[in-house]
Amino acid sequence: MAEGQNGALIAKLTELIDPIVRFEGLVLIEVVWRPENRGQVLRLYVDRPEGGVTLDECARLSREISYNLDVEDIIQVAYHLEVSSPGLDRTLKTPRDFEIFAGRLAKLVIRDEDGGTETLTGRLKGMMGDDVILQVKGKSRAFSIQSLAKARLEPEIGKKRR
Predict the structure, then answer these.
(1) Would you say 157 and 147 are in contact if contact means Cβ atoms under 8 Å apart?
(2) Beta 79-84 vs 39-47: how paired, if at all?
(3) Rounded CA gap, 53 and 76, in Å?
(4) What is the model's pTM?
(5) What is the pLDDT of residue 156?
(6) Is the sign of the CA dihedral 120, 103, 21, 19 positive or negative?
(7) How confident is the model at residue 37 (pLDDT cuts 50, 70, 90)?
(8) Phi, psi of 33 (to 5 degrees)
(9) What single-letter DSSP state applies at residue 91?
(10) Which residues contact 102 (CB under 8 A, 6 or more apart)?
(11) How far is CA 128 from CA 68, 82, 121, 135, in A?
(12) How do residues 98-137 score in pLDDT, each as one tens digit?
């Protein structure tokens, strides 16, 4: 499938799947449609900003989404559906990710103009325009989202997140 067609399919899938995910109190993080060794795979990453998602929730969501995909008949080829959590240390990619996970501990790798990098760990404060706001040692710092080489949540097992 060509890239443009792939993007159009993902947009249609997202439009159908997102309301189902939100109804369950979860957030649709990413929709991936790609060929793998065992055939075409539709992989959905879902999460709950406060508390994560359980295996039972993923299984229930998989059944509900599978039923709706069959009814709507959007996908015309055989495929495997996978619904999972992006994990405790999930990658942050979009401005929406930085907003959803505001209040959480994150590690950012920032590229400077000379090609070097700086790694910082702090509390996400969200977005301000095109800048990610990170509180490090009590001080808020702003970084252009384009300057981020990597960004991921840091697990805080057993601690309150906000």
Answers:
(1) no
(2) parallel
(3) 30
(4) 0.72
(5) 81
(6) negative
(7) confident
(8) -125, 115
(9) B
(10) 124, 125, 126
(11) 37, 34, 19, 13
(12) 998 899 999 999 998 888 999 999 999 999 999 999 999 9
DSSP letter (8 states) at residue 101: T
Cα 40 to the chain's mean position, in Å?
21
pLDDT in tens, 15-34: 999 999 999 999 998 899 99
Q: Give, as one character, the DSSP assignment of residue 52.
A: -
Gap between the Cα atoms of 107 and 151, Å rounded: 6
Which one, of 85, 26, 51, 55, lies nearest residue 160 by Cα?
51
Beta-sheet strand order (sheet of 148-153): 139-144, 131-136, 117-128, 105-111, 148-153
Distances (CA, A) of 68 to 20, 28, 43, 114, 141: 9, 16, 15, 50, 44
What percentage of the chain exceeds 70 in pLDDT? 93
Q: What residues contact 62, with CB distance under 8 A and at least 6 apart?
A: 81, 82, 83
Provide the token pair at 149: 């080489």
Contacts of 28 (CB under 8 A, 6+ apart): 14, 17, 18, 21, 22, 44, 45, 46
